[in-house]
Here is the input.
Amino acid sequence: MSDIVDPKTIGSPLDAVSRRDFIKGVIASGAAVSSAGYLFRASTLLGQTSDATGERLITINVNGQQRRADVMKQETLAWTLRHKLGLTGTKLGCDRAECGSCTVLIDDVPHYSCSVLTHTVRGRRVLTIEGLASPDGRLHPVQRAVVDEQGFQCAFCMSGFIMSAVGFLKYHQKPTRAEFAQAHSGNLCRCCDYNKILNSMMRAAEYTRKNAHA
Ligand code: FES
Ligand code: FES
Here is the structure.
């Protein structure tokens, strides 16, 4: 499955339903793209051995699991997540700390994973979009809010916004729209869908409060 939407399906009579289903599927996994190629790919390039590339086998805690990977000294967390661990829900946009599409939580705090070296997260907790839903498949309140508001157009920036919102809502129970906009100033949307994104985020705050009191 590809994360590219067929333009022919946009605007069809079933648009509302198919778009909702599409968003739901992407939100649950963070990406519709198959990760099998990455999962079963050797972690070295062009047949080079770990010794030749300077890789070391390390263990990091990702989404509550201990994951092992051969990692180069200069390797970023975004690269490891996507290419070594098959977690392609974390997107790489600028790859230089400008767009926020690679945002993940490290010990509950949002970080640009393109600008964090993987070996520095040993002993810390990394949470990606794939780790948000409960084991029984129930979506996180922020994910539910995005489904209900149908926020995001192409959704490339979505996992970064969602992870940033999850981090923000841990410490801000009742943000105003302006505060939420400010909190997301490190996340860019190339589709400029900011109004809908903010609607989703305000709904996410509401669901998070309800969840806390449920
Ligand atoms: S890809 Fe990391 S901030 Fe843009
Ligand atoms: S919805 Fe397309 S980049 Fe944000």
Summary: Strands lie at 56-62, 65-71, 103-106, 109-112, 125-127. Residues 152-157, 189-191, 193 surround FE2/S2 (inorganic) cluster (ligand 2) (CB under 6 Å). Helices lie at 15-29, 36-39, 50-53, 77-84, 141-149, 158-171, 177-183, 194-213. The CA atoms of residues 118 and 156 lie 23 Å apart.
